[in-house]
Amino acid sequence: MSESDITLKSGRADWLGGELPYAIPSKKLGMWLFIVSDSITFGAVLVCYAYLRLASPNWPTPFRLSSIVNGAIMTFVLLSSSVTMVAAVEAAKHGRIAASVRWLSATMLGGVVFDILHIREWLGLIHEGLRLYQNPWGSSLFGAAFFTLTGLHMTHVTVGVIYLGIVAIGFRRGKFTSDDVEISGLYWHFVDLVWMFVFPLVYLLSARMH
Amino acid sequence: MGKFFAIVLTVITLVSASIFAMHIWWMPVDISVHGPALDKQFGETLMGTGFGFLVAQLSLAYFLWKFADKGDGRKVREFPGGPKVTIITAVVLVGLEILALSFVGQKAWASVNLDPAPPNAMHIDVQAEQFAFYFRYAGPDGQFGAVHPEKISDGNGNYFGLDPENDIPARDDIVVGSLTIPVNQPILLTIHSKDVGHSFYVRELRIQQDFVPGIVIPVHFTATQTGKFEIVCTQLCGLGHYNMKAYLEVLPQDQFDQWLKAQAGQ
Amino acid sequence: MHDTSDQAAVHHHAPPKGFLWTHVFSLDHKVIGKQYYFLSLAAVVIGMVLSWIMRFHLAWAAAAIPGLQHLSQVGAPGGIITPEYYLSLLTLHGTLMVFFVLTTAPQAGFGNYFLPIQIGAEDMAFPRLNMLSFWVTFVGFVTLVSTLFISDGPPISGWTAYAPLSALGNDAGPGLGRGQILWVISIGIFCIGSLLGALNFIATTLDLRCKGMTLARMPYTVWAWFITAVLGLLAFAVLLPACVLLVLDHVGGTSFFIPGGLVLSDKLQPHSGGSTLLWQHMFWFFGHPEVYIAIIPGIGITSHILASTARKPLLGGSRVLVGCMVAIAFLSFTVWGHHMFISGMNPFSSLLFSVPTLIITIPASIISLNWIATVFGARLRFHTPGLFAIGFISVFVTGGLSGFFLAQPSLDIYLHATYFVVGHFHMVMGVAAIFGMFAGTYFWFPKMFGRMMNETMGKIHFWVTFIGVYCIFMPMHYIGLAGNVRRYSAFVDDYLIPLIPVHKFITIAAFVTGAAQLLFLFNLFWSMYRGKKAEENPWDSTTLEWTIPSPPPFDNFGGRHPIVYHDPYELGVEGAKGDYVMQDSPEKLAQS
User: Fold this and answer.
1) B87, C320: Cβ pair inside 8 Å?
2) Cα separation, B244 vs C500, whole angstroms
3) Same domain (yes/no): C317, C242
4) Where are the domains of chain B?
5) Strands B186-193 and B122-129: what pairing?
6) What CATH number does residue A36 fall under?
C-alpha cells in the first residue's frame, strides 16, 4: 500500500533513497530550516519590542524626516541588492560563472553601502544622546530596543556579505556549485525581508509627527 | 518476573492511593468564603484522576501478571476492539472530565480573580521586599499616602517610601509587619513589590498571588474564622526566601477596632 | 539538477586517522552520539550529587557534610551549606538536568547514534555541523559548571531565572552578578548547539532515508526524534534572544526585564520601563515545548523497546502514536501560560491557557492507554530494557495525572510553587525521561559497545530505582498538598516543621535510589570491557540497527545500501523464522 504511494508520487517504481519524496537537496533544506528558526528569533525580538512599547507611556518618536529619508535610501539599496542577487543566481544556473561573481560582488557592495549608511545613522543618533540605556526623549527602552533590533539585523547583513564573499570565491574556483549560490541567495532575500519588518516598525512608527 | 512486577506495582498503587484517601497529609481547614468551591473542585479532580490512576496501574499490573512469555509458543493477541477502543475511551472519559472541570473550575477562579472586590471591602496596601512583608492601613482619613521609591529606606523604617512632611494622607498611615483583619469582612489587598518577585500565600485562605515588581495587583478575600495563620513567600526571591513570612491574624470586629485604634495612637 | 551522486557526496567521508580525529573531533555520528551521551552522563552525575547534598540539607539542616567546605568555603563553611548556597546548588541542579541531561541524552545522544542507522543512512546530513553542535554544547556545559568555581558561586535564581532577580546583579543576592551572566551565556550557547542539532536531525530524516524507508515505515524512535527536532528548532529560537536580552540587562545597562522604581538595599535602581512578565512569557514560550523536547524522545524509545519486549507492534501503530505526538507538539506552543496562572498576568488569559493544557492530556492519555493495551495479549520478555520501558509507562501515567490538578488555575492557586509541582514534574519529566534513557542504554548498549550489560545488576538497578522513585516523589505530592513550599533551604514555618520527618524519609529514599545509580554506573563501565560479547541482534528486534554488526562499522552498513521492505515492527509474526521479520528482509509476509 505504501509502496504504491511512492510510485504515484514519483512516477517510478523504486525509490532510490535520499532523493524522494522531498526532492530538495539537504543544503537547501538546511537553509530553509535556518530561515524558519531565525525568523522566529526575529519574531520574538519584534514581539518583545511591541510588548515593551505598548506598555510604556512615554515611548519616544524621535526620527526626523532626514532619518526617514536615510532609511528609505537604505531600503532602496538593500532591495536593489536583492535584484542583483537574483541576477547572480540566474547567471550561476546558466553556467555564466564570471557574470554570477560580478552580480554577487554587486550584491555585496549593496550590503556594504547599507551597513555604512546604517552606521552613519547610528553615529548621528548616538551624537544626539541615544544610548542603549538612556535617551533624551523618553523611555530608556527605546535605545535598547532600537540598537538590539537594528543591530541584530545589521549583524545578519554583515554576516551575509562575508558569506556571499566566500560563496563568490568558492564558485569562481569551482569549489561551490550554482546550488550554493542559490542557497546564499535564500539567505540574502531573507535578510532583506526582515528589514521590511524592521524599517516600518522601528523607523516609520517612530517618526516625529510635525 | 511478570508476577513480581504485578505485585510491586499493585502495592505501590494501593499505598499511594490510600494515603491520599486517608487524608494523612491534607490541606488545612479552609477559612475563606471562596475556599469551599476550590476544595470541591479539588475533590472532584482527585476522584477523576484517582479513578484513572487505579484503573491504569492495576490493569497494567494485571496484564504483566498474565502475559509474560512462557516460551509455550502462544500467539500474541491484539487488544479486543483495537485502537478504536482506547482512543474513544480517552477522548470521551478525559474529554468529559475536562469539560466538567473547566466549567466548574472557571467559577472558582472567577470568584477569586475576575470578580471585583465588594465595594465595602477594607483596603490594605501590602509591600514585599527581600525578605519581609509590610502592611499599610490608611488610618483615620481613609486615604493612603503616595509611595516614593526614592524615599524607601529600611534603615529609618520608611518601608513604603512615604513623605509625611509634604503629603497629608501619608501622615496617619499605619505600617505594620503583620496582617490583622476583622473576621467576615471583605478585604482588598493591593500588593506590590519593592525589589524582586515575591508571592503572597496563605494556605487557609486558599490564596496565592505573585508580587510583580512594577505592577500593583489587587487581591480580595473574606476570612470566615478567627485565628492566627502564616503568610509565606512562594516565589524564589533570594537567599532569605525560606525565612520570608508574616502572620495573618483574624480578629472579631470589636477586637480588630481596638487593635487598629491602638496602632493609630502610636 | 541535483542528482543522487552529488547528494551522496555530502555525507560520504572517509574514516579519519589518529586519536584526535577519531574520538575527539570526529564527524562520525556514532562517535558524536557517544560524546553527547557521556556529556549527559557527566551532567547527570553532577546533578545527582547536587540533589543528594540538597536532600541531606533539607532533612538535617544543621548537620555538616564532611568535605563540602572544600568545594566552597563561603557557601558551605564547615560543611554546612548556607541558604544562598542551597539555592545556588538548586539552580545548577535544575539547569544541568533540564538542559544537559533531559534535552541532551535522549535526543542528541541516542538520536545522533541511531537516527541515521534506523533510516538506513551512513551519517547525518551535515556531519561538520553535527560536530560543531556537540562542541558548542560542550562549551555551554563547561561555562555552566565553571560557576561552581567562581568566588560568588552559581546564581541563586533557579533554572527559570525569573527577572528581575536574575537581572539586577549582585545587589539582589550572591551569584547574581558574574554567576548569573555565565549562566545566561551558557544557556545561550546551549540554544545555538540545540538549534544546529535540530536542523541537522530534520534534514537527515527528510533527505537521507534509504530505499523503501517511507515515512510510514520509520521506527517510532525516528518519529519521536524528528518531532522533537521540530520543537527544538522553534523553541530554542525564542530562548536565544531572551538570553541575549538578559545579558544586555546585565552588561549593557538596558532594562528589558526590569521595571522602574525598584529599591535594593535602600538604593533606587537606575532602571525603568521594563517588564518582568516579559521574561516569563519568553522563558515559558520556550519552557513548555522544552518539557516535550525532554519527554517525546522517551516516548519514542519506550514505544520502540516495548514493541520488542511485548513481541508485537504498539496498538494503533505508528499512525496513532505519531498523530498523538504531533498533537502534543502542536499544543505545546499554546500552553506556556499555565506556568503563570498566579504571576499577575491577566486572569482571563489563565482560563484561556488552561483549556489547551487540559486538552493536551487527551493525546497523552491515548498514548498511555495504547501502551497498556499493547501489554495485553503480549508475550512479555522481562529483560532490563523491557522493565524500564514498562516502568516508564507507570511513572508517566502517575506523573501525568497530577498534571490535571495543576492545569486548572483554580487549583493552582493552592498548589502552585509547592512540592506537589516538584513531585509532578520530576515524575513526568525527570523520572519518566530518565527511565527512557535507562531503557535506551540497556537496549542499545550492545550495539554501541559490542558487549551486553550485566542483567543481574540491571535488574537490581531497575527494582531499586522503580520502588525508589515512588518513595521519593509520591510523598512530595502529599507534602505539597499540606502546603510545603518549594525552593526553601530550610523549613522554619510553624506548619512546615511537622513535615520534616517526611523530608527525612524522602532523603533516605533518595540515597538508596542513588546507590542503585552507582551500581548502574559500575555496570556501564564494567560491561564496556568485561561484558559478554554481543550478537548482531540480541533482542530479536526488527529495525535496521539490528541488521548490522555490534558495534557497527564506520559507514554503518559496510558499503551495503539497505532496502526496506516492511513496517518497522513485524513482531510476533506467524510462520516467520523466529517470530519476527527484519525490516530489510525480502521475505514476503503472509498477511500483507
Assistant:
1) yes
2) 18
3) no
4) 2-69+77-114, 122-265
5) parallel
6) 1.20.120.80
**A contact chains, 3+ CB pairs < 8 A:** C
What is the rounded average pLDDT of the residues C494-506?
A: 96
For residue B99, the model assigns a pLDDT of 86
CATH code for the domain in which residue C129 is found: 1.20.210.10
Structural domain contains residue C282: no
Say whether residue C203 is in contact with chain A using an 8 A CB cutoff. yes
Domain shared by C317 and C247, yes or no: no
Q: Which residues of C touch A135 (CB under 8 A)?
A: none
The position carrying cell 580525529 is C21
Q: Residue B218: in which H helix or E strand, if any?
A: strand B217-222
Q: What would the pLDDT profile of C203-230 be if each residue is shown by its tens digit?
A: 999 988 888 898 999 999 999 999 999 9
What is d(CA C161, CA B23) in angstroms, rounded to the nearest whole number? 35
Residues of chain B with pLDDT under 50: none
Domain total in chain C: 3
Q: Across-strand partners of C267? A: C264
Any B CB within 8 A of C120 CB: no
> What CATH number is given for B122-265 in this structure?
2.60.40.420
pLDDT score recorded for residue A10: 34
Q: What is the pLDDT of residue C136?
A: 97
C16 in a structural domain:
no
Average pLDDT, chain C: 93
Residue A23: what pLDDT? 57
- CB contact C466 to B (< 8 Å): yes
The pLDDT confidence band at residue C576, using thresholds 50, 70 and 90, is low
Q: Is C362–B90 a contact, with Cβ atoms under 8 angstroms apart? A: yes
Query: A153: how many CB neighbours lie within 10 A of its CB?
Result: 22
Residues of C in contact with B151 (CB under 8 A): none
Burial class (CB in 10 A: 0-12, 13-18, 19+), A210: exposed
Q: What is the pLDDT at residue C587?
A: 73
The percentage of residues in chain A with a pLDDT greater than 90, rounded to a whole number, is: 80
- CB contact C200 to A (< 8 Å): yes
**Looking at residue C560, what is its pLDDT?**
86
Look up the domain containing C320 and give its range.
Answer: 313-530
Say if A19 falls within a structural domain. no
Residues B102, C354 contacting (CB under 8 angstroms): yes
B67 to chain C: which residues are within 8 Å by CB?
310, 375-380
- Coil, strand or helix: which one is C179? helix
CB–CB contact C410 B38 (8 Å): yes
For A81, the domain range is: 25-206
Q: Nearest by CB to C411, from B45, B75, B76: name it.
A: B45
Chain B neighbors of C173, CB-CB under 8 A = 130, 238-239
Output the CA angle B169-B175-B178, nearest 5 degrees: 150
Which residues of chain C are within 8 Å of residue B88 when distances are taken between CB atoms?
A: none
CB C480 within 8 A of CB C495: no
Domain boundary among C530, C550, C578: C530
Q: What is the ipTM of this complex?
A: 0.96
> From CA B146, how far away is CA B165, in angstroms rounded?
12
pLDDT, residue C589, reads: 63
CB atoms within 10 A of CB B51: 14
On whether both C403 and C455 belong to a single domain, the answer is yes
> How many cross-chain Cβ pairs, B to C, lie less than 8 Å apart?
316
Q: Which chains touch C (3 or more CB pairs under 8 A)?
A: A, B
**Considering the domain boundaries, does residue A142 fall inside one?**
yes
Confidence label for A182 from pLDDT (cuts 50, 70 and 90)? very high
Q: Is the pLDDT of residue A16 over 70?
A: no
Query: How far is CA B263 from each of CA B174, B177, B179, B256, B260, rounded to the nearest angstrom?
Result: 7, 12, 12, 10, 5
Cβ of C282 within 8 Å of Cβ of A45? The answer is no
Query: Which chain C residues are Cβ-neighbours of B75 within 8 angstroms?
Result: 572, 574
B238 vs C165, C362, C411: nearest CB? C165
